[in-house]
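WP5 quarterly update. Target: Mitochondrial cytochrome c oxidase subunit Vb. Source organism: Aromia moschata. Length: 122 aa.
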Amino acid sequence: MASLYGRFAASTARKHVLCLSYRCASTKVTMGDPLEHATGLEKRELLAKVAGNDDPFDLKVIKRCAGTKTQPNEIPSAFDSRLVGCICEEDATSINWMWLHKGEPKRCECGYWFNLVHKAPV
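Structure tokens (predicted):
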């Protein structure tokens, strides 16, 4: 019985020493820059952010300007149409959604005009 306990203690001690040496070795290893590992759309997004474009997909809120028929609010899109939401009043609890199509300015229910303009894709 004593020899069984001795073998168990020796094997546990070896595992503990191996774990400690593994931890020491792993602390020296570092991951490379995420830009080096990224591919495809993720890499293009990271490159756009490095170039200074914080919103490469134009997902942030765009503040409305005059919004007249002669000077509509310009909404960027890489496609021929885009779904746009207009918060007509500052305290509104709902959003008025509408589809914008390239070359066709559209008027919201609140009276503001919107126009789709071309933007190069990411």
